[in-house]
Amino acid sequence: MTEIVDFLSPRLVGDRFDGHAIPLEVLKDLSVLEELIVEVAKWHYKRDNPQRKRIPKGFADEVSLKVTEIEDGSAIPKVVLAIATTATSLFPVDHREYFEKARASIVEAVDRAEKQQSVAGLLNDNHLAYFDRIGRSLRDSESLELNFPDTSRPARLNKTTRRYLTLATSSTQGYTEEVRIRGRIYEADQEKERFHLRLMDGTRIPAPIQPEHLDTVLDAFNTFKRGSRVVIEGVGRHDRRSGRLVKLESVEHISVLDRMDVGARLEEFKLLKNGWLEGKGRAPKSEHLDWLAEVFDSFYPDELPAPYLYPTPEGGVQAEWTSGDFEASLDIDLGKQRSNWHLLNIDTDEESEAEFDLTKPEDWVKLAKLLKEVLGGDEE
After folding, report:
1. Per-residue DSSP letters for 174-195?
2. Does pTM surpass 0.85?
């Protein structure tokens, strides 16, 4: 028989989790969380029973954490403690208290991390190392609220608190995060199964060559002198003090970019400094460029040609398209996340204008329709 006990109902917050959906990559975080809970439960048992040299046999073998359903509200996986009870091997009821203590310690540690407070005594260094894997898939605006629905102490695990916990011990040399980066492969060593990537800012980092990516790596390497660029998604290790990316620990996806790739061009704009235009010209903010790259990637139709991109003296970005007698441009205000469309027929001098809110998917649909009329292409 198996006894089911309600244990944890963490809430995933962010656009990706609307509609009670949990991406498969996020489920990995819950799996590591289970590992941490078991280890912290053992630690509490040892502290409460110093006379015992070993953890009792079967302490964790007959207990497991399972997701039984996704509850209402963003995405809330209901995690239960499944305790196997048989005639020959009974899981002692009083051992459950150590899993409860483990949960309390972890929730308190995450809550203190949000307040930048010490977590000493709640978790040891080995436990803190788990946070290098828990929450790694969370994006900037996302969080995992471990103590939901207690709004007074939600214990939010996000990029900031995860990093704080990972670095809470002096022995940690750095931390890992999922990254999406662009660069050029200038060196590839098949024997050592690694390649080196030069990022847009000139930083050079090593990365492993995995068998499934070998052809793409070699293709990008062989076309390096022709300016070939790649986009890579994987797990990157960052320096403890500076936060600088120092290497890729794994590569999940890699592809060669189109020479007009929007994201690559916007990465170049991050190198601009105030005064870039003959002593004038405001440099666009890095986070604004990241936003623009993300919305272009999400909403700009693949079948349309990529625009030519230019920085504007006001700190914005201008996108331009040319087709026959038509010249089209989109002047983008990065701060307001709005844009002004201008279309000119150079043969007749006929002009038209429009405004688009780039935070709205429906405005991207309108923009795509205009571009298809100018550039050609089938409408969806």
Report:
1. EEEEEEEEEEEEEEEETTTTEE
2. no
